[in-house]
Backbone:
């Protein structure tokens, strides 16, 4: 299958190239980007005219709990702890495999609709999350999340190891990591076991870290340490880490963090909604820490629109630092694309539009969008005036999953909305 995209305004996120190139053609062959040139004269099975539109890499969400789509808007007015213990955990106990499948489907439809092509998940009943990803064609990084505070830790370790044996290197679209819920929800011994599994299988660890002040206090007490960095330095020295949030860190702790093999999944909307605070992203970038973007689950993050996360990321840093030069638009775009690919160790495959890379890309159409005209600065338009709904076409692994806003799946999205409404009615 060959797809030829013509006349695009290309924002490739290839850091060696100009930030935007005009009138470019892109030839996709099977699942790869074969050629990027002006006026490609090759025959193709499908031609898409992208005149006056923007072609950019598919966005990459590095922190999410995919099946939590069904918990959208259940948190307003609650603290994180009350929300989890009183609302979410009792409902999660009632979820069946089929529920997880349909709830995941809803998130994947939302991703395709808003131009997100890869997601890093942290949840359980992961085989259903994988099945739904394969049925939709979404790129997924996934784990069986470890947590032993409920006394069922050993069972989870067993499930994780079986999952890794069964799925490692099996599908192009699926990569794995070791999800550890957090330092505060796990014993030291259990954390060590999780790290062992990661090392044995050459996988990253994906973990929540310092989301709020309470968590910082809990970690200090549980590990009997002065700084939250102490347990990280002690146990995670030689394992790559993706840390979600990292809101409550001092400058000195950020300095120490920069010495580890770590990337941060910044989730500004969720952090604001749960009243957690604002991560010092500019400081982290200054220290050469790879900062990527995540939405968190819809329960706390509301939706999976990565354009929204980009806008919040930029505005929050400018505002809190009282510095309009903080977080230029291109830096923010990097966070949602190439930095996110690096965080998932997939930068050789995705995160930018380059010949030889996998064809994960989106077409944004701002032509009839009054709040984006005139086009004075396309990079800034993408960060400040573009919404997920302005994504017109989504291509993942060389497959068109949405064209002209029409989602091309075997089932209708309406079926999935209905299934998810039935699930939440039943379990709440
Ligand atoms: Zn989370």
Residues:
């Amino acid at each position: 299958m060959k797809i030829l995209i013509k006349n695009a305004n290309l924002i490739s996120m290839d850091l060696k190239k100009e930030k935007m190139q005009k009138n470019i053609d892109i030839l996709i062959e099977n699942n790869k980007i074969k050629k990027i040139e002006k006026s490609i004269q090759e025959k193709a099975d499908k031609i898409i005219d992208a005149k006056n539109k923007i072609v950019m890499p598919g966005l990459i969400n590095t922190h999410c709990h995919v099946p939590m789509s069904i918990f959208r808007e259940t948190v307003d007015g609650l603290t994180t702890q009350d929300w989890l213990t009183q609302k979410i955990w009792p409902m999660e106990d009632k979820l069946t495999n089929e529920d997880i499948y349909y709830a995941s489907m809803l998130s994947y439809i939302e991703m395709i609709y808003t131009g997100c092509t890869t997601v890093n998940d942290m949840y359980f009943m992961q085989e259903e999350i994988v099945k739904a990803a394969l049925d939709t064609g979404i790129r997924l990084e996934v784990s069986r999340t470890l947590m032993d505070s409920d006394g069922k830790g050993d069972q989870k370790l067993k499930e994780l190891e079986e999952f890794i044996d069964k799925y490692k290197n099996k599908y192009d679209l699926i990569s794995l990591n070791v999800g550890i819920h957090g330092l505060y929800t796990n014993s030291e011994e259990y954390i060590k076991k999780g790290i062992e599994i990661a090392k044995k299988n050459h996988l990253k660890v994906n973990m929540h870290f310092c989301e709020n002040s309470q968590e910082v206090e809990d970690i200090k007490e549980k590990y009997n340490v002065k700084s939250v960095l102490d347990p990280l330095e002690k146990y995670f020295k030689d394992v790559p880490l993706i840390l979600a949030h990292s809101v409550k860190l001092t400058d000195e702790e950020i300095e120490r963090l920069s010495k580890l093999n770590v990337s941060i999944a910044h989730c500004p909307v969720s952090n604001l909604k749960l009243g957690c605070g604002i991560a010092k992203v500019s400081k982290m970038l200054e220290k050469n820490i790879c900062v990527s973007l995540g939405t968190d689950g819809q329960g706390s993050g509301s939706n999976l629109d990565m354009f929204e996360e980009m806008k919040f990321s930029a505005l929050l840093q400018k505002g809190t630092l009282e510095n309009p030069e903080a977080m230029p638009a291109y830096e923010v775009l990097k966070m949602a694309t190439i930095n996110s690919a690096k965080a998932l160790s997939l930068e050789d495959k995705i995160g930018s539009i380059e010949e030889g890379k996998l064809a994960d890309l989106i077409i944004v159409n701002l032509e009839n969008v009054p709040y984006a005209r005139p086009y004075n600065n396309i990079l800034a338009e993408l960060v400040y005036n573009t919404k997920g709904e302005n994504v017109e076409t989504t291509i993942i692994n060389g497959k068109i999953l949405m064209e002209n806003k029409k989602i091309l799946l075997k089932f209708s999205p309406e079926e999935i909305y209905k299934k998810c409404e039935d699930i939440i009615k039943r379990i709440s």
